[in-house]
Amino acid sequence: MTRTKELPDLTLKPVFSREKFQELVQHQVIVEAWSKKNFGRGKRAWKTTFTEQERQVIAEWHGYFRRWHLNTGIPSQVQCPLKVIPLLQRACQFFAEV
User: Fold this and answer.
1) pLDDT tens across 55-96, in order?
2) Where are the beta strands (DSSP E) in the chain?
3) What's the structural domain count of the chain?
């Protein structure tokens, strides 16, 4: 009987085309409304809607989105973990409603 070594936690990061990523995540909404999370009702909603960890992930992706939106455009291929897509979609919905 052979023993197999346990693999470290692996994260699958599929590669999306520019068009598919744009279809899944409308990042412009996040970029345009980002400052709303800093004041009043938007700030309270931001803190109650997302956990600290989720806010950190969204903030990390906001950096990419801002650069794409204002400077470079979306790259032809975007690598993003599958578990992050629903979070980014929730963030888009949040910023569209705030």
Assistant:
1) 999 999 999 999 999 999 999 999 999 899 999 999 999 999
2) 15-17, 77-79
3) 1
